[in-house]
Amino acid sequence: MTKHTEQRSDYTFKYNTKLGRHGWLRLTPAYSVKLVQELVSETPKNAFILDPFSGTATTGLCAIEMGMSAHLCDINPFLIWFGNTKLFNFSGRKLNELEKVFDEILNSFPAKISNDNWVPNLHNIERWWCGHTLPIVAALRSEIVEKVGEPQDDPYSNLIWICFCRLIIETSSAAFNHVSMSFKGGVTKFEVHQIQSLFGSIFENVLASARKPLKGKAVVNSIDSRCMTDVDNIRYAHVITSPPYPNRMSYIRELRPYMYWTKFLDKASEAGELDWKAIGGTWGIATSRLKDWAPSEVELPKILLNSCEAILNSGDKNSELMARYVHKYFYDMHLHFASLRNLLEPGAKLDYIVGNSTFYGIHVDSDKIYEKSLEILGYTNISTTIVRKRNSKKELYEFCVSARWNG
């Protein structure tokens, strides 16, 4: 892979939005399709690829578009549901049938607007959708449920739900002018005909990309990456993944509107529980539980312990919490690297896309800490390549940390 020190928009989520299935739903931290394609092209033919941090299933989709096979892992039920729909090879005939169902939904939902339709228990929901738009969106959801049921294991009806997720975010006051989601200055008012037009356009684009056949096969499994488990006795030749970065940016925050509207979440405490299970999670109770967390006796890189001590001594009121956060993040990643070894073929290659971080002016060099963890655990041929510069002022970069497992 070529070394890049500039800010590369083609190596970010922005590039993905123009690429068929890759652009079905926006998740800001998703890594670049172009970068993954470069890494997949290095995989031996007929070999199995593993992504232990599936996210929006970018690795799996790149793999099967190139005729490879892949297993992906995640703990978030919404991302597992979304990823498996995204990776499905659809039948043209059944998509034609789905198109008729969609047209019925589009034409009939306005009759439900005056009903007392269900809306999610999303805190401060009026900040997301104004009092005029919300009943229209709720009526559309009610009609979808009546025609195809709630989100489920059927990939065809799930396409309509994915389009609905796109619709709710595009009609909301959410703004994406930062590394994560924020809010615009005010909510936008949508009329029924505008909702119909937008929903129809989204479905048309999703349907067109769903019609394109996929060459390989991939599946997302519910597995905690800290304790990787065997799936069908498969051994992997290449691990291509991008774990959460150690920067306290909660993925669950950006996923919440999707997860509430699809009933994968019902209340804020569930979001906190899920984020606590995630590596680097920070939402709700994840922060409060961090105060009581302590590592077990595991050999960790000295560079990590030095970074934690520097953060602890920085003098900020939250320095102890942040030092503990950084410690736990890399402790969890160390457990992941350790449990991964039993799933790898001899000679397997690892490629981890990760960014560095700063806390109170102290640099946390993720690439160097990853390297040392891998070395402690017996991996070889360890190296790091700069993928791109993320922030010119803070000297934040994205790296590809690579290694081999020789068994």
Automatic annotation (TrEMBL):
This is Uncharacterized protein. It comes from the Bacteria.
